[in-house]
Amino acid sequence: MKLQYVNKALALAIAGLAIAPVWAQGMDMSGMNMPGMETPAASASTPADHPTSPTKAPPKSGDMGGMNMSGMNMQGMEGTSSHASKSASTLSPKPSTVPHDMKGMDMPGMQMQGMGTATQPTTNGKMQGMQDATLSQPRSADAYSDGYTLTTGPSIPPGVKPPRLADQENFGSVLVDRLERAYTRDGNWTAYDVQAWFGRDFNRLMIKAEGDASQGRLQDARTELLWDHAIAAFWDTQVGVRHDNGSGPDRNWLAFGVQGLAPYWFDVEATGYLGNEGRSALRLATSYDLLITQRVVLQPRIEANLYGKDDPARQIGSGLSDATAALRLRYEFTRQFAPYVGVEWSGKFGRSADFARIAGEKTRQTAVVAGLRFWF
Fold first, then answer.
1. How far is it, in rounded angstroms, from Cα 353 to Cα 360?
2. Whole-number mean pLDDT of the chain?
3. Based on the domain organization, do 109 and 178 belong to the same domain?
């Protein structure tokens, strides 16, 4: 009977030792001090003089709750039993899916001051406060180019110019927005509105020209030479000079303004002018392309001119001098070539209308127009 109890106790001890490596994998026992616990000797000895009391088997594998190990002495435990050898050979450490429940375990002689488990967060002094430099600051391409730049490198021998990229090239374009013939009851005339530019994406030299001619004579013309600079994705600033000629004396102005695409796809031009003798002017123009189909486009357009003071020699009065509203329908054979027809209403106001009446001219008129719009 004593030997049977000893064998049971030995089997339980070996089972505990078998699962101990699995439990120890998640436990840091570097600082563990267990002065009250005696480990088994290297060689087996004779059976103990006093029998050990029978103990109950744990209800679950790895569950050691309620076990009292305060008086356990394993020095005299015999390990030559065939039953113990069989248990030791068959019980190999395997990953356990059952959590090791050790609550209630009574180990009064064991000191576990430095004991830590794997579930506690590991502290690494080298990683505290560490930040990735590539996330805190933008990456510089020059730092990875080995000293190469856009103008230097082994493929560019001395004295050879570097290759030019697309945004370094100069381009040019000409837009003839209106080249038309206008028909009224009182007479006909030819009108033009042209823009041409040469330069790069951000800086260009631009020429604007608008006017009309009748009976072989230039009636009214406005020509501007501007430096165009892009300030946003759809907006340019323009600074330059303007020259007026035609009927009356010529006038010269300093010009400054903006041109671009407003929200909802409105083309907008707003330019202010300063002339000699305290003259000032403001020109506003806007248009909108309404695509009826991919080739048929209806374009409404409004233009107005305002002046700061009277200029009787050119029949110009202060305030709102003249305004034009037009509606043109064009058919685009290609985007670069489109004939059109339309109607245009124009009028003079204020002092400008008074000057026109004195000269025997009409202040309001409606014209039917036909012309071409093209660019290259």
1. 11
2. 77
3. no
The verdict on residue 284 lying in a domain is yes
Instruction: Give the integer Cα–Cα distance in Å for 269 and 224.
Output: 13
Largest CA distance in the chain: 144
CA quadruple 286, 372, 252, 187: dihedral, nearest 10: -100
Q: What is the pLDDT of residues 73-131, one digit of tens each?
A: 555 444 444 444 444 444 444 444 444 445 445 554 454 544 444 444 444 444 444 45
Task: Tell whether 77 and 196 lie within a shared domain.
Answer: no
Separation of alpha carbons 238 and 203, rounded Å: 10
Q: What are phi and psi of 302, to 5 degrees?
A: -130, 140
Is position 186 within any domain? yes
Give the integer Cα–Cα distance in Å for 6 and 12. 10
Range of the domain at 293: 171-375
> Is the residue at 161 inside a domain?
no
| pLDDT (average), residues 178-205 | 95
Which residue has tokens 């790069």? 200
Q: What's the 3-state SS for the chain?
A: CHHHHHHHHHHHHHHHHHHHHHHHHCEEEEEEECCCCCCCCCCCCCCCCCCCCCCCCCCCCCCCCCCECCCCCCCCCCCCCHHHHHHHHHCCCCCCCCCCCCCCCECCCCEEEEEEECCCCCCCCCCCCCCCHHHHCCCCHHHHCCCCCCCCCCCCCCCCCCCCCHHHCCEEEEEEEEEEEEECCCCEEEEEEEEEEEECCCEEEEEEEEEEEECCEEEEEEEEEEEEEECCCCEEEEEEEEEEEECCCCEEEEEEEEEEEECCCEEEEEEEEEEHHHCEEEEEEEEECEECCCCEEEEEEEEEEEECCCEHHHCECCEEEEEEEEEEEEECCECCEEEEEEEEEEEECHHHHHHHHHCCCCCEEEEEEEEEEEEC
290: pLDDT strictly greater than 70: yes
Please, what sign has the CA dihedral across residues 196, 240, 214, 281? positive
The structure's pTM equals: 0.58
